[in-house]
Amino acid sequence: MSNPWLRLWTDMPTDPKWRTIARLSGQPVASVIAVYLFVLINASNASERGRTHNLISEDIASALDVDTGDIDAILAQMEGRVIKDGVVTGWSKRQPIREDNAAERAKAWRERNRTQSNASFDPEKSRLDTDTDTDTDTDTDTEQIKSISRVYEAYPHKVGKGAAVKAIAKAFGSLRKRNEPNPEKFLLERMEGWIEKRERDRAAGKFVPEYPNPATWFNQTRYDDEDNIPKPKREIHVLTQRELDEQNYRDFGSPPPEEWAPVGAPQGWVPCHN
Question: What is the pTM (predicted TM-score) of this model?
């Protein structure tokens, strides 16, 4: 009975035998490896697994779009190295029969896990563990969920919420590992800086791409991009009318309003500025 599965060993692609066979056959190493895969598949499908008596060079040549002579040259050099007397060498070692009962082995594995799980369950210990729990962890989890939700709501392009929430939670974990005290505040500020930069670029006539999906932005840690660091905001001081009049007097010599004059000052009083 043919087997739809077969094994490859981990260093098979870098086995030095392929270079030897390639050199002696005058064919590329890639072609040698490809032909060997056909050899394995043919041996796996044989009535007596491991045998290569049904191997047909023309079929392999057609599949790989090469000349039949090239395949024959490779197979000739494989003889005695990876094929011996029509059998793939090492077949019984690398392709054990037990691989054919994968369903039975999976069933046995599940049964072992079920038995171990039942044996390790202690109702009394479980009750004590539950009773000693505090509400602290629950409160912390609830607050984090709220924080993640606020970050998602602040993102300007809301799609793929499930994947986005996972990506934001991952970002929270990464920021905590590097001792960021408030991941929510950090992410909100970085998003604000990113959005402001996009607006500046758009106003300057630069090309501004569409917003990426939130999961992509957070998974790629775009919040760490240098361009997304918020620019310090300049404080704007609005002059009072008196400050404006004083500035006009200093700059243009405009006479100050009469209400500035002290009590008893003569008409046409002007303050003295050093």
Answer: 0.38
